[in-house]
Amino acid sequence: MSGYHDIEVERIGPVARISHNRPELRNAENTRLLEEMMDAAERASRDDGVRVIVIAGKGDHFSAGHDLKEGASRRDFTVEQRYAHEERLFYDFCLKIWDAPKPTICQVQGACVAAGFMLANMCDLIVASEDAFFADPVVQTLGAAAVEVLIHPTVLGHRLAMDMLYTGRRLTAAEGLSCGMVSRLVARSDLETATLELANQIAKAPPFALKLVKRSLHRALDMQGFRAALDAHFDTHQLSHATQEFKETWERGLSSGITRGKSAMRR
Ligand code: ZN
User: Fold this and answer.
1) Does 16 map to a domain?
2) Per-residue confidence (pLDDT) for residue 70, from 0 to 100
């Protein structure tokens, strides 16, 4: 499939694999990448031949998160402009992946940070390689109340989510496996094969039954208040963008080259 600039879409039997494709920028998610991913996910959701959707990243890292350089151009956004931008491109996009009417698997290597981490956790399952690490450092680095979709407690449990968000620390793939966030942990060289094996195993199941069981599992979370909590957090997150703390933390980040998070990633 062609026509995309910042993602790659491959059809491998019953699997549609949608990959971030900005490896030289650690697959930072810019607007075009997110628009393309939304389009590709919608097409894969509609295509009856696709039984499982894999979200992946080309190169050494899954994704370092939103493109902060591009984000700098939104510094002067009004509250209304930022709300509209993040609602459509970040929040609605993530929920679209969550609500995909077929199973989704995230294939993770290297950095899976901030918005990358948020997107990975919108998928039903995660296959990670041993070099993968997960973090949402934005309380510490940006002065923001976590990322836009507060998926962390659902996948990590309440206490580990607090630990990770307060400190900004990385979770290793092994920690992710032990807390149940990571579904399969494999060697880096086996990552693609293991993910496709899992996808193909799932694809053997009758698709309507899969769709229904996913719906039931998600509805159970919704009955516990999952979606209402996400909605509430999104508004709280927007409040955190409007604070003096955020402004000062952001300016400090800009003056030190924006990418403290990125240089931390290289360590
Ligand atoms: Zn935001």
Assistant:
1) yes
2) 87
Q: pLDDT digit string (tens) for 1-14?
A: 559 999 999 999 99
Are 153 and 134 in contact by the 8 Å Cβ rule? The answer is no
Identify the burial level of 222 via C-beta atoms within 10 angstroms of its C-beta, where 0-12 means exposed, 13-18 middle and 19 or more buried.
exposed
Residue 2 lies in a domain: no
List the domain range (segments joined by +) for residue 237.
Answer: 7-266
- Please give the distance, rounded to the nearest whole angstrom, from the Cα atom of residue 259 to the centre of ligand 1: 17
Say how many Å lie between the CA of residue 182 and the centre of ligand 1. Answer: 25
> Facing residues of 52 across strands?
15
Confidence (pTM): 0.94
Q: The CATH number of the domain where 119 resides is what?
A: 3.90.226.10
DSSP 170: P
Assigned domain for 159 exists? yes
Tens digit of pLDDT for each residue in 203-237? 999 999 999 999 999 999 999 999 999 999 999 99
Angstrom distance (rounded) from CA 7 to CA 263: 24
Which residues fall inside 5 Å of ion ligand 1, going by CB?
86
For residue 59, being part of any structural domain is answered with yes
Q: How many CA atoms lie within 13 A of 121 on its CB side?
A: 27
Number of domains in the chain: 1
Amino acid at 182: V
Token pair in block for residue 29 = 């998610």
Nearest to 109 by CA among 185, 161, 183, 4: 185
